[in-house]
Structures are given as C-alpha cells and as structure tokens.
Amino acid sequence: MQTHMVEGGSLRFEVRGQGDPLLLIHGACGQIEMLADLAGALAATHRVLSYDRRGCGSSTPDATNDVRVHANDAAVLIRDVLKEPAIVVGWSWGADIALALALAVPSLVRSLVLLEPAWQMGRPSVEGLRLVMKVGYQCLRGKDRLAAETLGRWVFQRQRGGTAWDEMPENIKDVWLANTGALKVELLRPSLHNLSMDFVSAKTMAGITVPVTFVIGDDSHSMRHKVQESLSAALPAMKTIRVAGASHLLPVESPAAVRDAVLEATATVSEARSPSPGRFEQ
C-alpha cells in the first residue's frame, strides 16, 4: 500500500495489474479491502488504482460530504499516479463521485462505469428522513456500529424482500462497521454539494460527454431502478447492464459478473480522447 498527498491530507492507495488505467471508487463505509475481489478480477486486464476515500480506512481522517472535494481527490490520483485518462468505476456514492469527476474534468475520464449511483436519492422523502433520524439518534447515543448496521440494512435492501446485509461476508461487514466516522459526516451533515448530488439537475447531467454504462442488480431495491430510469432519461446514450440475482452489494457478491460488465462497457472505448472543458464548477 502507498499514500499520496491531496489537499488537506493523504490518501492510501494500491495499484494492481497491467493494461488500460482504471480508477475504482468505493461507496459509503468502505475502503480498499471492500472491493478487493473486484479489483483483483479487473487487474487481469487493467492497471487498477483503488483507494480509501478521505475519512475512510487509512486515508486522512477528515471526512467530508462535499462531492466536489472527492472528485478533486480522484482527479489528483489520475493525474499524479495513473498519469493518463482513466476508465472510472464507482460504486454507490463512489459512482456519484465518478459522475462529478466527469462533469468537472472530462479530459481525465475515458469512460464511466456506474455501479448503482445514488443520484438525487438524498432529496427529502418520508423513508429517507426516517432513516436519517434513526441513524442520527443511534449515533447521539454512542451506538455508532448499530447506526452503521441500520444504514447497511437499508442500503442493501432487495427488491424481492429481505436485505443483502444478512448475506454480507463477515470480513466485508467488519470493514463497513469500522468506517462509522465517515458515515456520521457523509450521511448526517447537511451539505449543498452532498454525495448523492441532489443539487445536480438532469440538464446539467446531460452535459456529460464521455461514454457511460450503468450496472444494476436486478434484485436491487426499486429506488435503485428509479435512479437508473432518471439517469437514462438524462443520458439517452447511456448503456445499462443488469446483473441477474444481484443486489446493491453486486461488486462484493458478483465480482466476476461486474468485471464482465466493465469489460463489455469499455470494449469500444478509444485509446485517446481530446480534452474538453469541465461543466461542474469546483
């Protein structure tokens, strides 16, 4: 493992494999180890950089829910470590960071592969407010691990009932529960520029110029399918790949299927792209 300096701290990262450069961005309560199986699968064909987002794992402990900061961190890693435009694969909030990066600095992104982003899922709803209140109350009582489990059970709900949280491998569950510090900032602290990108309109999202593929588990909760429908309306050229039987936990429970989806999504990406101006104000 290595570290690289970014504004306000450092990020722990790992590079594996040879081939076209690929940046892998984890979601909430994550770190490198959570996506290790997927990174290993992708490293057979790509040079994969995975990292702990700020506030997570062994990176700088100063968490933030400002997606612009996370997008800038990703840009720094592409510029300084990979040193050429990369395929960007993001999971959940990591996928929203990938979208923010493509809007801000499209010249650094060869293509996007989005594993169920949360675009606009943070907008007020009865279910969402209940979740935030419950998690917030548990954190106030000092029950941080219980709060993280509450979020996990909600995030990994299956469309056909139940939650993939109960099927999560214990080592992955330990990673999730260990990153509650970031959770309290990313979920509970109000921000205009939050990680679910509630402030980004469909019109702005339509300005993305790089190829986009949305990968979704067919057993993910209906709210994930609504995000896919909304993003597809904003980006009519976006390709959608469905993973049979998978939930929002898809990169953990189905890494080979996700690898195949990434290979399919990036098969026609050209080796070089001409720079274009960013649309997402930093």
Features:
alpha/beta, 39% helix
Largest sheet: 8 strands, mixed
The CATH architecture of the domain at 2-123 and 193-266 comes to: 3-Layer(aba) Sandwich
Rg: 17 Å
Order of helices and strands: EEEHEHEHEHHHHHEHEHH
**The CATH H-level homologous superfamily of the domain at 2-123 and 193-266:** Alpha/Beta hydrolase fold, catalytic domain
Write down the overall geometry.
Answer: globular
Number of E-state strands: 8
User: In percent terms, what proportion of residues is strand?
Assistant: 15-25%
According to CATH, what is the topology of the domain at 2-123 and 193-266?
Answer: Rossmann fold
For the biggest β-sheet, the strand order reads 1-2-4-3-5-6-7-8
**Proportion in helices:** 25-40%
Distance between the termini: 29 Å
Structural class: alpha/beta
How would you state the average pLDDT, rounded? 92
Number of helices: 11
Q: Name the poorly predicted regions.
A: 270-277
CATH class of the domain at 2-123 and 193-266: Alpha Beta
What would you say this structure looks like, in words?
Helices cover 39% and strands 17% of the residues. By secondary structure, the protein is α/β, with parallel strands linked by helices. It has a domain at 2-123 and 193-266: Rossmann fold (3-Layer(aba) Sandwich). Strands 1-2-4-3-5-6-7-8 form an 8-stranded mixed β-sheet, with helices on both faces. Helix 1 (36-42) crosses helix 11. The model is unreliable at 270-277 (pLDDT under 50).
